[in-house]
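[Help] Beginner question about ligand-bound structures

Sorry if this is basic. My supervisor gave me a protein sequence and a SMILES string for pyridoxal-5'-phosphate and asked me to "get the holo structure". I don't really know what that means in practice or what format the answer should be in. Inputs are pasted below exactly as I got them.
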Amino acid sequence: MNTMIEQKEDRAWVELDFNHLKHNVNELKKAMPEDCDLMAVVKAKAYGHGAFEVATHLNRLGVKAFAVATIDEGIELRRYGIHGEILILGFTSPDRAKELYKYDLIQTLICYNYALQLNKQGYAIKAHIKIDTGMHRLGFDNNDVEAIKKAFTMKQISICGIYTHLSVSDSLAKEDVCFSQLQIQRFYDLLEGLEKEGIEIPKTHIQSSYGLLNYPELKCNYVRAGISLYGALDSSTNKTRLQLDLRPVLSLKSRVVLLRQVKSGDSVGYGRSFIARRDSNIAILSIGYGDGVPRNLSGGNSNVIINGQRAPIIGQICMDQLIVDVTDIDHVSTGNIATLIGKDGNEEILATFVASEAKSIPNELLSRIGSRVK
Ligand SMILES: *Cc1c(COP(=O)(O)O)cnc(C)c1O
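Answer (accepted):
No worries, everyone starts somewhere. Holo just means with the ligand present. The predicted complex, written as C-alpha cells, is below.
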C-alpha cells in the first residue's frame, strides 16, 4: 500500500480531522447564547494543529473572529488571507503600531501606560481593553476606573472590545467558583460604572473554554475558545457543568524506520535504562522530543499504536527518534505507521492521556509539537 510514501508523511506528521473541527464549532455555538460569537483562539500554531489549515477552515465555516498571542501570528494569518477580526492577546511593542494598522489587527491594551504609548505612535489602532479582575497577569486594574475611562478617549485608539480572563474557571471547587464569581462580578460592576459615566460599552468577553463550560449563563459578545475547539479538554480536571461532545481534531503520527531483534539482557538506547527481559523485536520510530514528544514519557507506561495494537515506548526518548517494543505485535514492517496521538483500529490514544503521563496538560503537549512535524 505504502510503496510511494508521500514526502510530507515520511517522518513525523499531524493529521487533522476537519469534520471533528466543524462538529466542535457547532457544539460550542449551540452552548453559547444567541448573539454571542465564537472567537477561535489559534495562537501557538493553533495549538500545534497548524494556523493556516485551522484558520482557513474556520473562515470557511463562517468563523469571523480569531485570537492570537503575538503580532507575528496575526500578520501570518493575514498573509494566509484570513478575514475577520484578529485580536492579539499579548503585548506588542508600540513601535510596531504601523503593522497593527497595516494588517488591521486588534491590540489588547495591557495597562494604562501601554495605551498612552500606543496612542502616541501616529496610527489609528483598534484595541480591546483588558481588565485585571484577579488573575494579575495583563490588564487595567478593575478599580482604576479613571484610567480605563481615559483610555476610551484616546485619539488614535478606538476601543472595540473590553474583556477579562478567569484564573480558575476550570475548577468547580467551592472556593474556586467563589473566586470566578468575584472576577465576573468585578467585570460587570466596572461595565455598569462605565455606562453610568456615559461610555458606550464595546464588545465584551470573559470566557475561555472552561469559562464557557462552567459559566455558560454569561451573556457576552464572544467566547474565546481554544482547547475545546480542538477537542482536547484535560480529563484530569473535574467534570464541567456543561458537558459537550467535543472530538479530537489532531492525530500525531510517525513511521517505523527500522526493525531489529535484541537478546534478553541487551540494553536499548541512551543511559542503558532499558534492559530486555526477553528476546525482543524492537522498532525505531522517526519522532522524538525535538518534535514535541515529551522526554519524560521515557520509562513510563506510554504506548504508540501500530497496526491497531499498542506498543510500549522503551528506553530514553531521543531528540529525533524513539524506540518501541513490538514483540507482541503481528506483522510489523518498516514503513508502518505509528500513532502517538489518535486512533488506529480499535485503539485510541487521547492527547489528554499523553499529557497526564507527561505531568502536563493537553494545551502544552499540543502547542509544543515541533516545526519539523508536517
Ligand atoms: C489562550 C487563551 C485563551 C484560550 O484558552 P483555552 O482554555 O484554550 O480555551 C483565552 N483567553 C486568553 C486570554 C488566552 O490567553
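A couple of things worth pointing out: Residues 41, 43, 89, 165, 208-210, 224-228, 363 surround pyridoxal-5'-phosphate (CB under 6 Å). The mean pLDDT is 96. Feel free to follow up in the thread.
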